[in-house]
Amino acid sequence: MASEMQCGVFHETYKSDMQVRPTTMQRARILLAVVFAFALPFILGSVEMRIVNGVVIAAIGAIGLNILTGYTGQISLGQGAFLAVGAYASGLSSVYFGFSWWLSIIFAAFVTAAFGMLIGIPSLRLKGLYLAVATLAAQQIVQWVIINWDPIDGAVDGRTTDALNIPNAYLFGNPEWRLNNNEYAFYFLALVVLIVVIIAATNLFRTHIGRAFVAIRDQDIAAQVMGVSLFRYKLLAFALSSFIVGLAGGLLAQYSTAISFERFTIEVSIEYLAMIIIGGLGTISGSIYGAIFIVLLPELLRLLGRAITGTDTDSIRAFNSLLPFLQQGVFGLAIVLALIFEPEGIQKLWRNIKDYFRLFPFRY
Amino acid sequence: MRKLLLMVMVVAALALMGAAVISAQEATGEPIRVGAIFDLSGATGDVGTPYGEGVIAYVDWLNDNGGINGRPIELISQDYAYSAETAETLYNQFVDEGVVVFMGWGTGDTLALKSRVAEDEIPFISASYSASLNDPQGEAPYNFLIATTYGDQMEIMLRVMLEQWTAAGNAAEDMRVAYFHNDSPFGVDPLDQGDAYLASQGLQAGLRVPMPRGATDFTAELQQADDFGVTHIVVQNVSGPAALLARNVVQFFGGNDVIQFGCLNWCADENFVRQAEDAAEGALGAIPFTPTTVVVPAQEAMRAWLAENDTRTLEEASLHFSQGWTAMSVMAEGIRRTLDAGSELTGPNIRAALETLVDFETGGILAPITWTSEDHRANRALAIYRVEDGLWVEASEVIDLRAEEGM
Fold this sequence. Notes:
The complex is a heterodimer of chains A (364) and B (407).
Chain A: H1 14-18, H2 24-43, H3 46-71, H4 79-96, H5 101-120, H6 128-148, E1 164-165, H7 183-204, H8 208-218, H9 220-225, H10 230-256, E2 258-259, H11 266-279, H12 284-309, H13 313-320, H14 323-341, H15 346-358
Antiparallel strand pairs in A: 1-2
Helix pairs in contact in A: 3-7, 3-8, 3-10, 3-11, 3-12, 4-5, 4-6, 4-10, 5-10, 7-10, 8-10, 11-12, 12-14
Chain B: H1 2-22, E1 32-38, H2 45-64, E2 73-79, H3 84-96, E3 101-103, H4 107-120, E4 124-125, E5 143-144, H5 150-167, E6 177-182, H6 185-188, H7 191-200, E7 207-211, H8 219-227, E8 232-236, H9 239-253, E9 260-263, H10 270-276, E10 284-286, H11 299-309, H12 314-317, H13 319-340, H14 347-354, E11 381-388, E12 391-400, H15 401-406
Parallel strand pairs in B: 1-2, 1-3, 3-4, 4-5, 6-7, 6-8, 8-9, 9-10
Antiparallel strand pairs in B: 10-11, 11-12
């Protein structure tokens, strides 16, 4: 590969034209990434795996949001609400209907898709910021329902409980592989879901549906003139996006087994928006990079904080008042710098690096 | 970026070196690891910060005074910014590092951790006093409630209000209570018990008024309460919004003496008085932890520690400081009793030791603590306080619901 320099990818057959990853280099990288993902649990301890699991759930959720916001151009501030609907649909169906974990997660995805379509109805008339405010309403309504509707907390015996407690779930019924306890078992489950979602989402944008989404994003009137039914495809975008977010919510519920409204606030919605903006709007890989960035950065800052203070009470006291704000400051700074240096997100940065080495030592 | 990182590293290195020099202390045995999460930068950071300072201060004080039987406490703690996810991550990390007990904070994260805590067998004291955490035979065998539950606080508050109301010559049935509460599980937690108490007295159930987050004015909510014929307001929220409400009440009803205002423990503090100023006068507070304005023996050590290590007085450090200090001291007592019994420091042993506490005195900060294997509520007793000239002073004797139950 290295010997032949490329100035573009040329297709000579329809078959090669249809390939998702046409070059050997691309395929090698994908293979490497998959091998790395499956090797990760063998390298890391359970504490680190917990953070990795957070990344995987966030990546699934971010891909879902990116379908709606990045590809179809419908800004949503309701991501937290969609996650909540997924998590509670999964949790409540486990508690009340006795669904097994996998059934409850699939159920959650469909329920969230239906909810997403409902929230998507105003999108026919509203665009941009106006739509964002409409989805914000969804966020508030869902939060209100979670807080104030008693059965949603599993308070079946009339006792007040503040969080929905979900029965433990086991992978393949193996008592060793408990999803909320065994980080490794959950990781393999979540990783498989992530891979399926990546493949599905990548292929979605090779079909007429995906192309219609992109057309709506780029110029909705032109899309309509071309025969794209705005109503149908916008709702479809909401449904598909929410379906995937519902998967993430369901996974989250089965993973943490105790869920309360505090996990699904407006901050969560904004965090997911930050993920796809930093990672790269309208790209699948960007969603994953963004999820890694947003989840990992605070963890790294925390680790650094731990390293600074240690466990000595005097040094903890000295830094306690300062450190949280320093961490928040660095977090904000990192986001601003990322956007200044590469407004198109991390995936563009990665593409630049690849381009650079493809033509090395020359450049465009 | 690189420069910043370098700077942070240099600061870190200096701090570590400094710390190494300072930390030549009395307690020298094998350290006992204690995990803790504090909210320093999140939604409840205003009260979480002094609470965390109190926990750290107690550990520092204890280690300087011989630790627990010569063994120092090694506190593994971090800010979790009131996020349940972060709490879970930190909890797992700290348990992995070998902590034997854990100091938690909020209602949401304590509940989220409940089943893990039970599995890992880690005795857990948090700053949430929700009665749903008291389930020692069932789902929460390792959660201990250090203070009077929100429900009991509400019941005692209503009782004192009713006594004062009838003593002033009013007919009991004219009493109308409005609950102004945080719109969250924390906020609604005590309301059912409040209504049950009112019903037991033949009174009408209270009006529930959720306080919207970030509200800057509660006039609309007060209008609703006024239509209901409100005579008493009880607030279950943190002190910031409660102070705003108190100011609104004075404006709306034209004075402090029209409506009796009452606060449960998270709003009855120095911050409430500071922010509400004159509007706080006459307000009642259900405070399980003795306010700093009332002198009790346990405060001596706190004052001495602050004088040596801090620039603030105990009054400035606030009652939440003494709350954190006391919570940590009770946990330390459980560890001490385990060691005294010659048992190994394991979760089940520490739990058993905590369950041997009978009428345990905290130097006047809390009503005596009794934990049994059936009941993990420390007590059901507290005194009601009132704001007079900007200070919280005692307005009632200690009322003990558990003692009355036993009679």
